[in-house]
Amino acid sequence: MITQKIEETFTSTKDSICAIAHGGMVSTAFPDATRAGVRLLENGGNAIDAAAAAALALCVCEPQASGIGGQSSALIHFGGKSLFLDGSGTIPKLYRNNQVTAADMQVGYKGTTVPTTLSLLHSMHASYGTLPWADIVTPAYDLAKNGYNITQLQQDLLERERELFTSIPNRSAQKYFYKNGENPYEAGDLFVQSELADVLDQVRRYGIKGFYQGDVALAIDKDMRTNGGFLRKEDLAQEPVPIERNALKSIVFGKEIVTTTPPSQGRLLLMALHLAEHLQKQEGRLQSPERLALLADFLYEVYRDRMENPIFPDQYTLENDHALSDPRFMQYLYESILTRSEQPRVLDQLQGGETTHLSVMDDKGNAVGVTQSVNMVYGSKTAAEGLGFIYNNYMIDSYQLPEDHPNAPVPGGCAPTSIAPFIIFENNKPWLIAGSPGSQRIVTALTQFLVHVLGAGMSIDRAVAMPRIHCEQYKQIMLEEGGFERSTLSALEQLGYTVKEKPTFYVGAIHAILRCQHSDCFQGVADLRRDGIAAGPKP
Can you tell me whether residue 480 is helix, strand or coil? Predict the structure, then answer.
């Protein structure tokens, strides 16, 4: 009865980082966004309504991680069906790789792909939502118009990124996101975004056509021409409707799991989990050096698969994926890890970036996970003139990939993505949903979370709080700073691993919801490493 153990050991907290509710649950990385989603549930909306409202609110109050100038994708279970809405943004038609430098990709206007967030959320709502579109946008509009309070994390990130913001000649984003266009806002300061509010008001009143084909599109076109960017009104006019893909299904730790297909990394999550099931055979406590070392080897192996075996999304089928369709392959891979006799080559590195993830469940059996991003922290460090939102810099992930790669830097192509949200089922209904930001750390964070929940029977609040590791290069382990004893670090070094500690912000931020099978309630957790809360409708 591991399910009962997991549910009964959950503990709610006064700060709402861990919460219990009836009638549904929302978990996001910012309190105002969570409350926006809850407001929709309380007004009779379903999980899709709540998720769309919360996601738009995050575009306002978590601009370091997402925005309407970025991209979003969603894993949905609605009406008994699971699907993946792939909102990957395309590379502008004018883009030429021989006309850019690595520096252009990090900051500036040349690294921006076609924004998809508004299209994804609008399409998702049009297909599965119940409340009027204006109700979905209003909470975000109110937050932009009336302001929200800057958090300590946001102040710290603005301090950290200041040099990159000021490297932009016209300082377009610094004008919007720094106090008086000069210094970082301090924690507690009210941050009002009047020009973004005007854009959201148009979206609220007239839908998203104005963004992709109207005045906003023309303003973006003019802004990009003025500043040497590639994005044009013609790119925006072909509204980036998300691609509906089948969800990827498997059995891990005896539970049915659904996750996302390529171009996302749900299959890597499944590979890591199938390997991690072998941790059950190892003696010692879960966080012992020996088991951490083996887990690191597993994580490295799945990242090696990602880099050495890129997949064209439209050609992918589970039947042709020997790593997941043939149990003998995973057993072979496990044994080869244990007996490896020579050091593999150093893997190419993806630049990666930051992201945000939200999870929602309603009392009708629906579940939604939305992962969205502007890529790096505060994206390209440029903002749309007169519109008030950050441009993404997703091209940094494609820039150095070869021409035959699925994510090659060619017009009309798509940059790679690392998202891997999942839903676990109990009695054929959603039981647990979660996802995480963190680029390459997404798969590693979610793998460890599920090892703790399904492998060790931990409650979801305790599993989210457990310290994390990351490994994508052979024998190189990143450990969450302050999470492990010095003796553990020393023991890993004695086992031949290079060990480096990383800040907690580095290791992802899981937002999870569980629908209890042994009581009539929902349990929600917002990762304490970010600013969020979990909450549900009031009785």
Answer: strand
